Amino acid sequence: MSFLYCSIAYLRFVFTKEIDLGIKVISIGNLSVGGSGKTPLVSALAPRYEQSAVVLRGYGRRSEGLVVVKDFDSILCDVEVSGDEAMIYAHKLVNSIVIVSEVREDGILKAKELGAKIVFLDDGYGKHHIKKLDFLIEVSTPNQFCLPSGAYRERLYASKKAIFLKEERDFKRSTTLINPRNRMSLVTAIARPQRLDKYLPEVLNKHYFSDHYFFTKEELKMIIKEDNVDSLLVTYKDLVKILPLELPTSLLDLELEVEQHVFEHINNYIKDEL
């Protein structure tokens, strides 16, 4: 099954014709399933460029089609419509457009229509029909097979140009604990939540939910009561869904410090496109 999956993905790549959408597109992706840090990386890159936009599918959202989550001025929908990752961008990228769309080229063209000059495509490696600069975040995994027996959605093909980025080499994480309390329990719905462990302060308990999960107020109130805690320790991805519930939270905010040579790759790509 894995061989068949990889073969189909390769054939799709081979027979796909690249199209130029008339705007510079920077893709941040990874080859394997699960979290790799795409959202914080895009959040670190996009503010460096005027009139930027972020386009993503919007996994886990309770809507369909193209949605402008945020224009250059304001947030235009709630987190259920946008999905959690898009709402992170909407809050963090105050000067950027944010659009969710299953059809990425529609989202890119809409961003262009709204005045964007550069688009950051979240999880766009597999969109081989879109002309773009591809960055891939390296994620170590002992299993080198494609789905379903392995973690790889696709391989890096010999004729496909991409720049690999690695944590501690090309970018570093820094954490800020906002509103810390004496008694906290971790509540999170991110992929591979164990990657938070090295950044965590002391917590009384850890509660893991499936990626993109929408919490209910009742289940979170039950955690607060049963753990006897002062607040729920969450990531930004969790916070955008918990804020409307008006419950006590502490934020473990993860930011990336990106090396200058990554921006130089982008700047050179922009110049080549002019």
Write a structural description.
The protein is α/β, with parallel strands linked by helices and 274 residues long. The protein folds into two domains: 2-170 and 259-273, Rossmann fold, CATH 3.40.50; 173-256, Rossmann fold (3-Layer(aba) Sandwich), CATH 3.40.50. Helices cover 28% and strands 23% of the residues. The protein contains eight helices and twelve strands. The chain has helices spanning 2-14, 38-45, 79-82, 84-92, 104-113, 217-227, 236-242, 260-273, and strands at 24-29, 52-56, 67-70, 97-100, 118-122, 133-137, 163-165, 171-178, 184-188, 205-208, 231-234, 249-258. The strands form two sheets. Strands 3-4-2-5-1-6-7 form a seven-stranded mixed β-sheet, with helices on both faces. The chain has a five-stranded mixed β-sheet with strand order 8-12-11-9-10. Helix 4 packs across helix 7. The longest helix has 14 residues, at 260-273. The radius of gyration is 19 Å and the shape is globular. The model has no long low-confidence stretch (mean pLDDT 94).
User: What's the structural domain tally?
Assistant: 2
The largest β sheet comes out as:
7 strands, mixed
CATH topology of the largest domain: Rossmann fold
Overall geometry: globular
Percent of residues in helices: 25-40%
In the sheet with the most strands, the strands line up as 3-4-2-5-1-6-7
**DSSP strand content:** 15-25%
Strand pairing plus helix content: what structural class? alpha/beta
CATH class of the largest domain: Alpha Beta
Count, helices: 8
